[in-house]
Backbone:
């Protein structure tokens, strides 16, 4: 499988050369900004756990970075690993093919890594191979999408999808609570994923608490194009809307474009995930975007940290108990104009 | 008798498509009333049809000639990314908004011509050559974009492409113009005649002195060009370029073209049919969303329409053959 | 009819009586009688187009006869499909060896009747049986596990024979089996045929090589124009001369137009020099002057059609030159040939000539619509007018130019193709089998048309399997045998027998 990936690259390389030559006039493909920006680095808290220990090799596998949030997951994990001189992070090429991902984990087992951080494309499909790793004595840290067996992971770091829905719903309730006839719309992500279903359920439950419900719902595919298409149809279907929750800030670019195209602004929009782009919109009082619900893109970075601690037999410094916890579920806070400054550093680029 | 049925055939087929569209519209009006039958919503339907529609026009030519282009979706993605890099955007700020559409069109055209070279002169089966382009173009788009969404920030570009001359969005006008040009090209020019001839019987066309290799090259170039136009429309609509633009677009496009009555085996093509096919699928999506129905049910309905249309096509074809022998 | 068998005691294994097969617009078989006895080699003789292939396909179950009956062991049978034929014990070995190259010898032999239990093939049993059959054919050296694609033509033929035997065939039909073999292999094939007949199997053997028929055959049935003209002649008692007469004897007379003769000073329009195409043909030189019709006579597979296609550029010549009006053509480029004024009416009208689902007028203007168009815009009015003019001149029926080409009969499709080049205007016209599938009445019209084109100054080459047609129509004749021109001379100075002698001479294995 790896060789085929390499081959695709080589072909595209040839095409780059040919097409570049043909399109000199059109300008090439640089994405370098004109003025170089200072890249902000967050404060690094040093605890005694951060003291170098035994060298650990950590295998890392995640789905293809085909949208901003997933790209941020991998780069945050890499950045985290680089902070430690005792961590050797082996990053497998991101893939949305579960067979390839299974073979990557098998590769890590054969290689005898000290720990594996795994964000599976499909939790259930990767459970068997994770069990295999655990049986081989390699601790597996499961990130974001849960395995179907509790024995398949030593530790699990989860975002809170249900909680995201609840946070978004609660925010909508706070804004509209006094109006039981308010029209609420939802733009979900890929409908077949459990995480989408969890988010929608949390959203519906929270709305139910204040006597509201979802009046219109469409499902996009986490891509800009699908976000635009679904939103355009949604706006056509509902001539007056009071609030929209969009599950994913990556598709949110398309959602905003559709809103702009339709010239609509009678509602407010709540985002999901927490991209820089959406946070900038929140800062703009003219924008329909009033809030977004964080879904941390740093969870794989947490996974790397846990993997290191487990491999080195250390404890989590701010916990009294011994050993790294079995499950950590991250908080899904709502970002609004009031607290956006605080969250900008962990935003990601779509 | 047989002559009449030969003329009636296409009219009947087109009648079936119009009937299907009217049926959908009736369902739309019945279930959603004015939310469906309003200028705003109809413009939404047309706007959403624009990308598939424009690319389907190019695809109609390729399929009529007996070929296939699986790469159009990936080329849309690549062109959208290339035309929205910061380098392109700076150039657009310095020289004018036209840099963006021209870049997208050029990328589409070159990708299409590479397809054409592989098929016509490399003698590769179109299915494989364009499948290779699909993979390569998507990969190249990911490399250029670094798998990030590239937001376009060139206001003059939007001033043009998000405008609404006569109350209708520019991108709908683009669809109308491309469709009209495609109809004219297919039915009224030597280019169109060659396309039908090459699809109907490549050997006979070659022996009649038609330069079929060169024509094949042009055909794939045309398909690439329409993919470039599709990318411009997507840029205007989504305000961003992305390597995920156009994902699986090729399947929607092929479905619309074939449902419209263009023969997958080549030799017969109809732009009117293609436009109707595109509108049927676009209206279907709209009616489903208006009724807040599940997208999975919509996918089933789409499958049923494709099967029904192809069965109907075969039925007409067999009737024609019977009545002419 | 001659029936030479005084005893008549032996009951025929296979008998065909009054077989008629009609295709739309053509009658391929028009009363065929055939009687095959167990253990004999029965030769089927006839010119191209006499109906041999149709007859074989009728026996193999690929065609259903329109009238007549087939009897096996004197019992009437219906051969509904190829599987039914095999079940009745009739196996056919076609000229184009239809074996599956990617499968092994054993797999090929048991193709379609695999030895299997519940879907699992019994490989060892198949291999054992295959070895037994190959042994019987005297080819122990072929391994049952060998891939058939790696065998030479002779080996593939053995595999086909073995397949026939594995089906317990009682009648084996062989369509020109020696055509693909060298002389040593032919000897071997003859030995196998004799062994088969010794076992009581009847062999229906088709060959153009009279010498071979003399060596191998017991009795001969001669076909001509879809009819049996002589049934079950005993080979030893029938002189070659009589056979040729039977094969060529006229049953239908065509009216050929007068030959006005070509002026001595007429300029040479087409000059072909030492043209060759790989191993297909070589060293073909000919010159056609304005107003002249040159005929190419030869058997199917002699390279006639390939010569035309190479002149036209549809195949890239490996040697030699083609000049039109003194200007050399780029080899292998059809549009250059068309631009220089060459037109080709190909042999396979439907697959190479016509857009069947397009209107007649678009077929007629296929090579001229660009020229008629103005600046890339079609002028369909002018196209229709040009087509209508030709349709009237050629009396193409029905006259409507908007009906699809598919609806025309063979003769009218041919006229549409000729009309294409009439609209285009040609200095050189290449006609490959211009009257194939054309009924008798329309033939004379097409002959007249070709002559008129020549009279108007075109240089014409006609290829035909029907020797009388070539001789009657052409001013000069080239006889082609095995990719070589073996004779060139005025058409008046040679007759059909002489041509047949030339064609068959030297090709005996």
Residues:
């Amino acid at each position: 499988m790896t060789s085929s990936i390499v081959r695709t690259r080589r072909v595209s390389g040839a095409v780059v050369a040919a097409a570049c030559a043909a399109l000199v006039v059109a300008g090439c493909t640089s994405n370098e900004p004109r003025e170089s920006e200072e890249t902000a680095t967050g404060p690094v808290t040093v605890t005694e756990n951060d003291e170098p220990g035994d060298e650990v090799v950590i295998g890392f596998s995640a789905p293809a970075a085909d949208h901003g949030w997933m790209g941020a997951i991998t780069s945050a994990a890499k950045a985290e690993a680089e902070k430690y001189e005792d961590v050797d992070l082996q990053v497998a090429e991101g893939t949305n093919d579960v067979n390839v991902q299974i073979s990557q984990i098998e590769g890590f087992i054969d290689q005898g890594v000290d720990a594996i951080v795994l964000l599976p494309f499909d939790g259930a499909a990767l459970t068997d191979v994770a069990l295999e790793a655990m049986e081989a004595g390699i601790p597996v840290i499961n990130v974001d999408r849960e395995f179907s067996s509790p024995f398949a992971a030593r530790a699990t770091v989860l975002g809170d999808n249900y909680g995201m829905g609840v946070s978004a719903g609660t925010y909508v309730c706070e804004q509209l609570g006094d109006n039981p006839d308010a029209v609420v719309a939802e733009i979900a992500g890929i409908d077949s994923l459990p995480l989408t279903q969890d988010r929608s359920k949390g959203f519906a439950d929270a709305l139910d608490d204040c006597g509201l419900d979802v009046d219109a719902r469409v499902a996009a595919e986490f891509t800009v194009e699908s976000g635009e298409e679904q939103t355009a149809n949604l706006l056509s279907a509902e001539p007056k809307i009071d609030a929209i929750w969009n599950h994913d800030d990556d598709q949110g670019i398309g959602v905003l474009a559709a809103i702009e195209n339709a010239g609509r602004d009678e509602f407010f929009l709540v985002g999901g995930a927490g991209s820089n782009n959406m946070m900038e919109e929140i800062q703009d009082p003219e924008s329909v975007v009033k809030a977004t619900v964080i879904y941390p893109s740093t969870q794989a970075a947490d996974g790397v940290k846990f993997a290191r601690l487990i491999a080195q037999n250390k404890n989590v410094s701010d916990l009294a108990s011994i050993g790294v916890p079995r499950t950590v579920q991250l908080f899904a806070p709502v970002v609004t104009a009031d607290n956006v400054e605080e969250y900008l550093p962990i935003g990601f680029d779509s | 008798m047989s002559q009449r049925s030969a003329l009636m055939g296409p009219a009947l087929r087109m009648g079936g498509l119009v009937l299907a569209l009217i049926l959908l519209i009736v369902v739309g009006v019945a279930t959603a009333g004015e939310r469906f039958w309003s200028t705003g919503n109809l413009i939404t339907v047309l706007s959403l049809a624009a990308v598939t529609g424009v690319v389907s026009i190019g695809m109609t030519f390729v399929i009529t000639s007996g070929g296939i282009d699986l790469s159009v979706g990936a080329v849309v993605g690549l062109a959208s990314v290339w035309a929205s890099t910061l380098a392109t955007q700076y150039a657009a700020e310095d020289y004018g908004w036209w840099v963006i559409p021209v870049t997208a069109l050029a990328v589409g055209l070159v990708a299409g011509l590479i397809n054409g070279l592989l098929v016509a002169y490399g003698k590769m089966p179109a299915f494989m050559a364009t499948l290779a382009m699909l993979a390569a173009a998507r990969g190249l788009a990911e490399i250029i974009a670094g798998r990030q969404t590239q937001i376009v920030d060139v206001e003059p570009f939007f001033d043009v492409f998000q405008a609404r001359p006569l109350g209708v969005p520019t991108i709908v006008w683009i669809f109308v113009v491309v469709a009209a040009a495609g109809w004219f090209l297919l039915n009224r020019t030597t280019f169109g005649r060659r396309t039908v001839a090459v699809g109907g019987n490549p050997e006979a066309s070659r022996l009649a002195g038609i330069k079929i290799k060169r024509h094949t090259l042009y055909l794939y170039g045309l398909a690439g060009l329409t993919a470039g136009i599709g990318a411009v429309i997507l840029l205007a609509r989504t305000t961003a370029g992305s390597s995920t633009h156009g994902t699986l677009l090729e399947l929607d496009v092929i479905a619309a073209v074939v449902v419209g009555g263009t023969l997958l085996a080549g030799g017969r093509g109809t732009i009117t049919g293609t436009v109707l096919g595109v509108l049927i699928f676009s209206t279907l999506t709209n009616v489903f969303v208006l009724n807040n129905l599940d997208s999975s049910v919509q996918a089933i309905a789409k499958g049923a329409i494709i099967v029904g249309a192809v069965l109907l096509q075969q039925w007409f074809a067999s009737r024609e053959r019977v009545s002419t022998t | 009819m001659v029936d030479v068998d005084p005893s008549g005691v032996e009951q025929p294994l296979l008998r065909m009586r009054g077989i008629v097969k009609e295709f739309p617009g053509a009658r391929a078989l028009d009363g065929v009688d055939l009687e095959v006895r167990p253990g004999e080699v029965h030769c089927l003789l006839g010119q191209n187009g006499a109906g041999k292939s149709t007859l074989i396909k009728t026996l193999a179950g690929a065609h259903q006869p329109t009238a007549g009956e087939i009897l096996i062991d004197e019992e009437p049978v219906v051969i509904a499909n190829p599987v039914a034929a095999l079940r009745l014990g009739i196996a056919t070995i076609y000229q184009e060896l239809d074996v599956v190259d990617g499968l092994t010898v054993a797999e090929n032999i048991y193709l379609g009747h695999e030895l299997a239990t519940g879907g699992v093939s019994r490989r060892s049993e198949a291999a054992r049986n295959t070895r037994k059959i190959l042994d019987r054919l005297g080819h122990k050296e072929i391994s049952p596990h060998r891939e058939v694609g790696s065998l030479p033509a002779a080996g593939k033929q053995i595999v086909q024979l073995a397949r026939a035997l594995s089906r317990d065939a009682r009648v084996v039909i062989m369509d020109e089996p020696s055509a693909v073999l060298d002389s040593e292999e032919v000897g071997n094939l003859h030995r196998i045929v004799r062994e088969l007949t010794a076992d009581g199997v009847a062999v229906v053997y088709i060959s153009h090589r009279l010498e071979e028929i003399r060596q191998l055959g017991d009795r001969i049935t001669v076909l001509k124009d879809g009819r049996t003209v002589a049934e079950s002649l005993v080979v030893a008692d029938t002189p070659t001369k009589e056979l040729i007469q039977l094969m060529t004897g006229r049953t239908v007379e065509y009216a050929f137009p007068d030959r006005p003769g070509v002026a001595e000073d007429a300029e040479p329009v087409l000059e072909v020099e030492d043209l060759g195409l790989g191993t297909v043909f070589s060293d073909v030189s000919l010159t056609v002057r304005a107003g002249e019709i040159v005929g190419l006579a030869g058997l199917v597979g002699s390279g006639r059609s390939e010569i035309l296609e190479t002149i036209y550029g549809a195949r890239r010549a490996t040697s030699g030159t083609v000049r039109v009006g003194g200007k050399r053509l780029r080899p292998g480029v059809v549009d250059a040939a068309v631009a220089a004024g060459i037109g080709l009416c190909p042999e396979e009208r439907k697959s190479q000539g016509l857009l069947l689902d397009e209107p007649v007028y678009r077929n007629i203007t296929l090579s001229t619509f660009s020229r008629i168009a103005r600046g890339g815009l079609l002028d369909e009015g002018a196209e229709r007018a040009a087509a209508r003019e030709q349709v009237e001149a050629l009396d193409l029926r029905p006259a409507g130019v908007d009906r699809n080409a598919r609806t025309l009969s063979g003769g009218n499709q041919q006229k549409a193709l000729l009309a294409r080049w009439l609209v285009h205007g040609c200095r050189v016209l290449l006609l490959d089998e211009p009257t194939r599938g054309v009924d008798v009445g329309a033939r004379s019209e097409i002959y007249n048309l070709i002559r008129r084109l020549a009279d108007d100054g075109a240089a014409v080459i006609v290829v035909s399997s029907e020797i009388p047609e070539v001789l009657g129509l052409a001013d000069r004749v080239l006889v082609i045998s095995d990719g070589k021109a073996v004779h060139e001379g005025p058409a008046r100075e040679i007759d059909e027998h002489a041509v047949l002698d030339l064609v068959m001479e030297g090709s005996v294995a």
In short: Residues 11-25+38-324 of chain B form a domain with the ABC transporter involved in vitamin B12 uptake, BtuC fold (CATH 1.10.3470).
